[in-house]
Specification:
The structure holds 2 protein chains of 2 kinds. The longest helix of chain A has 23 residues, at 34-56. Chain A contains 9 helices and no strands. Chain A is elongated, with a radius of gyration of 19 Å. By secondary structure, chain A is mainly alpha-helical. Chain A has helices at residues 3-9, 22-30, 34-56, 59-75, 86-103, 123-141, 145-156, 161-168, 172-192. By secondary structure, chain B is α+β, with helices and mostly antiparallel strands. Helices cover 44% and strands 23% of the residues of chain B. Chain B contains 7 helices and 5 strands; from the N terminus they run H-H-H-H-H-E-E-H-E-E-H-E. In chain B, the strands form 2 sheets. A 3-stranded mixed sheet of chain B has the order 3-4-5, with helices on one face. A two-stranded antiparallel ribbon of chain B has the order 1-2. The longest helix of chain B has 21 residues, at 41-61. Chain B is elongated and about 90 Å long. The chains are: A mainly alpha, B alpha+beta. Chains A and B meet through helix 2, helix 3, helix 4, helix 6 and helix 9 of A and helix 1, helix 2, helix 4, helix 5 and helix 6 of B.
Chain lengths: 194, 192
């Protein structure tokens, strides 16, 4: 079963596969239809969890933040006006959630997200690869939280500059310069730690 | 000196700033002095190292993260107690006490009633709220996706009748209005 088919799974009747737009599900959830909301959670849990994991560094914190983000979304349903997509709206909620968590624990070091990129079969290369991946993870974790958020949204989630500007409520120029600085600092640290 | 020492220093022995070389790779900003860069071994080895690190970063950024199990269920467990928030429901008052029925319960009953009508593929309740003019009555707004076959207006009429009848028999509530919009018509079994 493809990813797309699975996504509709929970919101269909037997033998019918129908795509219901996110915006319709938001309207239904607002009216109290919890099945509609749980379908929204199913559709968006991966992106919300990924951002939280990349921002907070540990699975436990990321799961907590993802749950809190969806609870906030539920409570804010009435305020969703459809000016941005549901995905953008949820990116904003989870990013803010993570930023305020990080602000309340400024000195606590980040855990390391377990990022292992590509399959490497040669054992000597594998060790080298792990060391490099580890250096990158540490370099990303060392960024100031607002820069890390921008980098995560751009390079991990693939959002456009314009979308990130909407998520973070800053100008496109500010997005570009933050991304530039974040990439520069990550690469510099990665190279210095090798 | 190796590239990592240059990274700590910020500049190469030829005077080129590491920041500029990084911006060249990550942002596509062209070098100030192409001729120098093409012939300078410091620049060339630094560029190669930066390109490697950038490729590794991008590969890592694109790597797939395993989803934790059961996140949806845990979210829904936290949301269900909150469901009274945001809607008053409807109150049925008699001399022996008041019964309050949440909007969520009404929405669920209305949705189930609509789905029980043949030819209805998807039903979402957009609104279920106490009618401001009639005590103990509600208005319901439904959106439907229906199957090809029977005329859609007949399906809508049957849904309206069923919603009214079920709310009356299962909750003792009068649906004063049932507004229905048909969002789409699909072939049963069709996949997109």
């Amino acid at each position: 079963m493809s990813e797309k088919q699975r996504a509709y799974g929970a919101y269909r009747r037997e033998a019918v596969v129908v795509w219901v737009d996110d915006e319709v599900l938001v309207g239904a959830a607002r009216a109290g239809d919890d099945a509609a909301f749980s379908e929204l959670v199913r559709r968006h849990e991966a992106r919300v969890y990924r951002v939280a994991l990349r921002m907070l560094g540990s699975d436990a914190d990321a799961q907590d933040a993802a749950q809190e983000a969806f609870v906030s979304a539920w409570l804010a349903l009435a305020r969703f006006r459809g000016e941005s997509s549901v995905a953008t709206w949820l990116y904003r909620i989870v990013t803010n959630r993570c930023l305020s968590r990080l602000a309340s624990r400024p000195d606590e070091p980040l855990g390391q997200a377990r990022d292992i990129a590509v399959e490497v079969h040669d054992p000597a290369r594998l060790a080298e690869h792990r060391a490099h991946a580890d250096a990158i993870s540490r370099a990303v974790a060392a960024l100031p939280a607002d820069q890390r958020a921008t980098l995560v949204l751009r390079d991990y989630e693939g959002l456009s500059y314009e979308e990130i500007a909407v998520v973070l409520r800053i100008g496109v120029g500010a997005v570009k310069s933050r991304i530039h600085r974040a990439r520069r600092d990550v690469l510099k640290r990665t190279l210095a730690w090798r | 000196m190796a590239v990592n020492d240059h990274a700590k220093a910020g500049a190469l022995p030829c005077g080129t700033l590491l920041d500029d070389l990084i911006a060249q790779i990550t942002e596509g900003i062209p070098p100030g002095d192409r001729v120098h860069q093409a012939t300078c071994r410091y620049c060339q080895s630094a560029l190669a190292a930066i390109r490697d690190a950038w490729d590794e970063f991008q590969a890592m950024a694109r790597s797939v993260i395993a989803m934790p199990e059961g996140l949806v269920d845990r979210v829904m467990q936290r949301i269900r107690p909150l469901m009274w928030v945001g809607g008053d429901g409807v109150a049925l008052i008699s001399e022996r006490g008041a019964t309050r029925i949440a909007d969520r319960a009404l929405a669920r009953l209305a949705r189930a009633a609509a789905l029980s009508v043949a030819g209805v593929a998807v039903a979402t309740v957009l609104r279920s709220e106490a009618d401001p003019e009639l005590r103990g009555a509600v208005t319901i707004e439904l959106r439907l996706v229906v199957a090809f076959g029977p005329p859609v207006t007949e399906v809508a009429d049957r849904v309206r009748e069923r919603v009214v009848a079920d709310l009356r028999s299962e909750a003792g509530i009068e649906a004063a209005r049932v507004d229905i919009s048909i969002d789409d018509v699909v072939a049963i079994g069709q996949e997109f």
